[in-house]
Amino acid sequence: MDKINKTGKGFFIAFEGIDGSGKSTQIHILNERMKQAGICCYTTMEPTDSPIGSLIHQIMTGRVKADNRVIAALFAADRLDHLLNDVDGIVHKINEGTTVITDRYYFSSYAYHSVDMPMDWVIQANGPSSDILRPTVTVYLDISPDTALERIAQNRFHQELFEKKSRLVKVREKYLEAFEKLADVERVVVIDGSRSRQEIADDIWREVSRCLDVR
C-alpha cells in the first residue's frame, strides 16, 4: 500500500491502544528518535485541552453526565477542532512541514464508542476528520486488559469511565474489528505492547521508519 496521507511536507502518526497500553511513553521515545533523524516533530493528544476537550475530560471523570451519543459527538467535534484550529491545529503544523504525532485519533472513537452504538455510525460521525486527514501510519500498542488495569492502578488515583475490565475487553475487540474493516484505506501496524520498553520502541521505530522512508 502506498503512503496513505501526507499533507505538505509533514507526516502524521497516530498512536492507539486501550488505556494503560504505554502510548505516552512510546510517543516520547519516538519523538526523540525522529528529532535525532532530523525530522521536526510536534506531539499532541486527544481529547485536547480546548473547551470541547475540557468538557470531555469532565465527563470521563464523572463530574458531568452525558448520553453516549453526546460523548461520541463531542469527541468528533474536538477532533475537528484539533485538526483545523489556526493556532496549533494538526493540518497547520503538517502544512508547515512538521511531523505530528498524536496520542489517539479517530480509531479511538471507532473502538470505544462502538461498544455502545453501531460502528458505522461512529465512522460516519468522524467522516469529516478522515476526509481531511488520514494518518500516514497508525501505531496500535496491543496489550491485555489485565495488564492495562495493572498499569493504570500503579499510575492513577482514579479510574476514568472507559477503564473497567469488561469494557476494555470489548474495546480491544472493537479496535481489531475496525482495523479489519478499514484495512483497504488505513495503514495500521500492530505492536506487542507487553514486552520491555526498549523492545517495543525498537519495533515502532522499525515500522515507522519504513512507512516514512526514514533512515
Would you mind describing this structure in some detail?
The protein has helices spanning 23-36, 51-60, 68-84, 90-95, 106-113, 119-125, 127-132, 145-155, 165-181, 197-212; strands at residues 12-16, 41-45, 99-103, 137-142, 188-192. It is built from ten helices and five strands. Helix 1 (23-36) packs across helix 10 (197-212), helix 2 (51-60) runs antiparallel to helix 3 and helix 5 runs antiparallel to helix 6. By secondary structure, it is an alpha/beta fold. The model is unreliable at 1-8 (pLDDT under 50). Strands 2-3-1-4-5 form a five-stranded parallel β-sheet. 38% of the residues are buried. The protein is globular.
Key words describing this protein structure:
alpha/beta, 52% helix, 10 helices, 5-stranded parallel β-sheet, single chain, 215 residues, 5 strands
Percentage beta strand: 5-15%
Give me the side-by-side strand order of the main sheet: 2-3-1-4-5
- Unreliable spans: 1-8
**What is the helix/strand order?**
EHEHHHEHHHEHHEH
Tell me the number of strands: 5
Number of helical stretches of at least 4 residues: 10
Integer-rounded radius of gyration: 16 Å
Principal-axis shape = globular
- For the residues shown, what is the average pLDDT? 90
Structural class: alpha/beta
Largest sheet, strands/sense/barrel: 5 strands, parallel
Through-space gap between termini:
20 Å
Residues in helix, %: 40-55%
